[in-house]
Design a protein that fits this description.
The complex is a heterodimer of chains A (about 550) and B (about 260). Chain A is built from 4 helices and 36 strands. Chain A is mainly beta. Chain A folds into 2 domains: about 325 residues, no CATH class; about 100 residues, Ferric Hydroxamate Uptake Protein, Chain A, domain 1. In chain A, the strands form 10 sheets. In chain A, strands 2, 4, 5, 7, 8 and 13 form a 6-stranded mixed β-sheet that branches. In chain A, strands 32-33-12-35-36 form a 5-stranded antiparallel β-sheet. A 5-stranded mixed β-sheet of chain A has the order 23-29-30-27-28, with no helix packed on it. The N and C termini of chain A lie far apart (about 70 Å). In chain B, about 25% of the residues lie in helices and about 40% in strands. Chain B is built from 4 helices and 11 strands. The chains are: A mainly beta (about 550), B alpha+beta (about 260). Chains A and B meet through strand 16, strand 17, strand 29 and strand 30 of A and strand 1 of B. Strand 29 of chain A pairs antiparallel with strand 1 of chain B, so a sheet runs across the interface.
Amino acid sequence: MIRRFLKILLFLNFVLTLQVAAREEVYLVPDRTNCVSGDTIWFSTFIFNPQENYRQNVVHVQLDKLSGAHITKVSIACNGNSGTGYLVVPDSLSTGIYVLKAFTNIQKDTESTVVHQRLISVYNRFETEIGRITFPDTEGKQFEKPEGIEVRSGPRSVVGSRQLNFDIEISDELRENLEQLFVIARLADPVSENFSQMWIDGQLSDESSSFMPVREQNGVLVTGKIYSPIDGSPAKGAVVLLSISDTLPYLDYCVADDMGRFYFYVRDAYGPGSLVVQEFTDQAQKNKIELFENYIETGALKTADKIFTPDERTYAEDMIKAAYFKRFFQGYSALASDSFSLYKSFPNPFYGPPTRSYYPELFIDLPNFQEVSREILHGVQYRERRDDVSIRLLDEGTQTIFKDEPFKLLDGIPVFNPGIFTDMGTTEIKKVDVVFFKRFYGDLNFDGVMAVYRHQPSLSWIELAEGVELFRYPCLQQQKEWNFRNKNQTTEITPDFKKVLFREKWNDIPSQKSISFDASDIEGDIVFEIIGVSKNHNLLQYHRVVETK
Amino acid sequence: MLHGLNPIKSVFREKAKKGLFLGLLVLIMLSVQAQRPYNVNVELTTESNTINYKLPGQQFYPIYVPSGSEFYDDQWMIGYVILENEDRYDSLMLKYNTYRDEIITVNDRARTMIMLDKDAITEFGLYEMPGVTKRFKKMDLDKIPKAEHYFNLPYDGNLKFAVWYRTLEETTAPFKDKNGYLQISDFVLRHNYYILFPDGQFEKFKLNRQSLIQLFPDHKREIRRMLRRDRNWVKTEDDAARAIEMIEKQFFTFSETK
């Protein structure tokens, strides 16, 4: 009996081990452990999954307060298991310690997911005196220090030169074991040095669970809910449309589940997109739509108040002054992240190749859509009766007129009120695409399609349209050059206040490499952080503080 | 007692009222239906949801075929479709229309035949029997009729053996169709055999040894000897696929283009 019980226990242990082994792990390596509000944190991520290997993966990186409140987030597309990106710290963020968290959407479905959090100290650039800070009162873990990495200071190139030279030596045994190496050199901050090597494990809470646990490979999953504006009850079965106004219109639909939730997988979209979400309905009373924020919850960290030592206070105040002078001398150049692009996989829009395309500007000036349809748009029947407007298209499949309204688009956004076209004449309309066939898009079907494109597309009409919601949604982050070597380009009288001096990702790991970069005008020691990703998916962390004279 | 009302007339008047009411109701219903902003035939459920790009297409209207067929196979076959963005749909009911060179599927929810947009599809396959899949890949034919066509690929290596199934409407001697009308056309499925060379050039050939050998003027003798040893007379598609594989191994292994 006891033997049988032991066997069951052993089997359960084996199953549990397998489950743990199958767990996906995401690690984040920021290039700095302190910054001033308004700075940009560059980071790299690694995904370790013992069972699956994907060509592409999307990792979300969020910045939270120690209490768990969310501040900002970016989503990056990784090539395989590793990726790089950046996160702009809001200018108004108050001084304190903050938490960086990285996760994949698939992790949200696993209860045992552990989030490996990193800490970063932020100094508000408008604060003049810093004496006290809320500090995390928790033990973190550190990774194994690799044997076989040496960083040696090289000689200065010229006496008085700003250029610093270092030699990095890596043993052959270690090189054979490594897949990638990230080399970072930065100024040592007396505050954040306390936790710069620390990884704090956080358990994913139930609130984070994803109702659509799909592997995001080259896109982001946009989720939301639709509900009645009267009693807030979920609009089960409502058909929700997502559209993005672009050169080739983008359309997707989703039928809301029992809880009114819907999802869209927006692929190959980079930058903040203007997503138009609306219900596909003829009901006068429109349901309310809202999108979920894609953050994870790991709970608050235990904290304790800490009074700054004189050294720490001096450093923090120097940082703030440096940020002020940097803006004074060099101005503020934000990374261009406002542009939106959507890569096309298909040569035609979702409504297929148009049966006819009309360019009204090539014709005589006509003042309104009735005249345009009558004179130019053959096969389009536009009727105005008192306040009522209707549009019907020719069905070339049966050589009759369609019974119902066609699917109408204005600059790529679906519109259900045909009256919106009434005042549009030849000077305003650039192109009209019409499809004189019954079209299908998945399970949706339309009695023909009429897409009107204007010379100056605008989404301003959405504000007046009931039931149409416009969301500015951050899609994937545009890739930027990640590697960096500080080279002081400015004249001698302009100071250099860089905090990160060297940042490179090596896929071909050399046995010996000499690196050089210019020193910063902020005085302090230099920290070398070398993170190695081993072939058997372990992290190795080399950390060394080099005193500068 | 009611005065001046015949009971029969009264019943008739009641019926007329009901009829009028029903007629009005129908008219109101029709006018309400005519104002619908879009077409809803079927109530959609969450089964319609997918993270794939939705299958785009238009309603398919079959033509009247007096003799023969416009399809590769008149029976619906289960198969798969791969879109240009590599999204895959499996277990679809498919018919390959070899007359229009288009793939037709049936939408269970809308209960309609849909002709899928060719520009959105990169490949489809038909499960002919358990374990046997006929794979069709969209390729750009550089010969007349120049366009993108679906080709079956019995051999897909550096050299490709591509078969284009094409149904042609051919004139025949007059005959009476099943409805008793006089017809003069017959829909005939023709098989066009091509070799696709690594440089993207198509060369047409017939199913015989000589026609195949003619495509390789520099290696005529060696290929003839090779096929003779293999006792391959290039009479069937399988023979041709085997012959092309042998030719590729002998003469086209240097190229990395695939």
